Amino acid sequence: MSTFIEHLKTVVNQGDYGEQSYPLAKIKARLNFSKDRYVFGAFSWKQVTETKAPALLFVGTCNAVAGFPQQEAYVWKTEYWLQTGNRESPVHVDHGRVVSYLPTSARYCFKIWVFSLRRLRHGVMIQRPGDVICLNNLVFHSVILIYNKGTAPVDKWCGIFGDLIVHAEDRLDSFRYATKVPSGSKKASRVAWESLLSAYSVMETGDYDPANYEEEQKKLWRSCHCLLSRRRCVLEPTPSGTKRARWGRE
Asked: Could you tell me the residue range of the domain that residue 219 belongs to?
């Protein structure tokens, strides 16, 4: 494993970071803390959906990622789109489990994934062409896309490929997060709830009707109220006219 980590450090050193500068020494140091999160061997959907780890990376297994059973989880969003040039995503969090692969055809690039751990620490993993990275439910992360030095401009392309898995066991944690996230008035807005609501509705009923947004939202509240063991969620009005969630005992 030490040889593998040293190779990843070499990959980082050989990157063309464009006009941006990054703390490469810190990134390479963090690689050592995530060495046990690399999986060598077959890709496993079971492992992805049952792991408690914040992140796993399956080395060279992108050809095995396909066909997650609908009855086990709802694949809320599948992304297949290309991007060119160096990119860095903002820090964000998804309401399901992220399964993202980098195809072998994108052989001139690699991605640096930075993800949050407990106690304000961060993990770093390097995704190379052919690798599949999986993030657990509600893990804050950012992604940096880098090309190898000397890559011709015509070859500076990559893509975002993967799924967002809303697992039944994760839905309550996502719901609780959505009601507590400090997003001000947006917390009660349709924009803030639409993605969560549509995913849950399709997973439970197989359909989502945007025209019945308010009714679908009420159904979700009732459903989550039943799932909360001995806890109750109450919508309280705020001075701005919106509502906020307060969790209390039955």
From this structure: 181-249
